[in-house]
Write the structure tokens for this entry.
Amino acid sequence: MFIYEKVVPFYDVDSMRVVYHGNYIKYLEEARCAFLEKKNLTYTQMEELGFAFPIVELKVKYIKPSKFNDILEVLVSLDSFDNFLTFKYEIRNKETKEKICKAETKQMCVDVTKKESLFEIPQEIVSRLK
């Protein structure tokens, strides 16, 4: 389990200082990128290996709102990496530990040279994720 911290910035909230729901997706992306960087596998490195990983599925369940200046913890885990990279997330308030939302993303591997979807994650990627 990887934990990414995010302080809710003012530009992510509405006039009631509540985070706009679409911004949570951005927080998931930031956390996933930090998780992959920790595994020494950035999206740039994946591209240099000849692969892209577009999101093909996103599920989000909103539970409670968060507000301006809240410190959020985004918990990230790589659930599987066989046919897709499947990540699971939980966003919670760092101070209260209240769950804000749960999410899951699936990313398909694409060979950037051939512009073809691959239905198995290449071994170069798998070895770095283990």
Notes: The chain has a mean pLDDT of 95.
